Amino acid sequence: MPLFDPLLTNAWIAVLLEPFQFTFMQQAFTLVILIAIPTALLSCFLVLKGWSLMGDAISHSILPGVVIAYIMAIPYAVGAFVAGIFCALATGYIKEHTRLKEDTVMGVVFSSLFALGLVMMSKIESGVHLDHILFGDMLGLSWSNIVESAVISIAVIGFMVVKGRDLVVYIFDHQHAKVIGLSVKFLHYSLLVILSLTIVASLKVVGMILVISLLIAPGAIAFLLTNKFSHMLSLAVIISVLCSIAGVYLSFFIDSAPAPTIIMMMSLLFIMVFSYQQINNVVMMKKPEKTTFAINNKHNTKAPVDAL
Prior knowledge:
The chain has helices at 5-17, 23-49, 52-61, 63-71, 76-96, 102-123, 131-135, 143-172, 174-179, 184-214, 217-225, 229-254, 258-299, 303-307.
């Protein structure tokens, strides 16, 4: 049997490395890493700002822009970006001129635009599968798509590096940001712009429906693990990159779509972290009771006998 061990080992290594031998898988791994970093960084800001629904609204509202871009024969990214900005501006305008709360306004705006996009999509005949915009087409993209995503990702990351401190102040204390002279409106709309850009970069990779998970899950998981924002950013990036790579890798062997598999990996990790915290909280709550019981026993060792 030992004679066959090297052969078995080599065979297993060949199987494990098989996904990396295909060009479309190499492109998929590259794409998810490019997308995982900016979405993870942005997710921390969205979670702390309470803008998770804003990300959902923009990701759904870009569908009309994509369809119009197809009709006009211009890049999808242009139409998606314009539609996303329109959604953000429309939400802000309606909120300022009505008594409705922001979440209500976002619900109305994004559902209306998404429905409009579905109607438009059903009325055009296309050789292109526009449903790939809904769910992504990671394995069908080219190196030109990777370059496009890379440019957008670098722009988003660069802005966060330059304006990161100002954004942190704006998110944690809106009034303090005003007092120290920061342009709150600029930061507000800048955050909306980079959110729209990030969604556009993720559009063809995971689709407009699943991108919201990439914009929430890494930050939510990191938030459960640490109370320090700098650590939260680092953890979110690590979680997003590892889950994305693992999701694409696993999808190759179980023959599933890569994007949903990535989201399932993040969901599983969230459940594990949440469960660990709940168990840890229960254990910590029981510890003081045990300590008190031990102290009482030390001072009154005859208590059990007297009780009898």
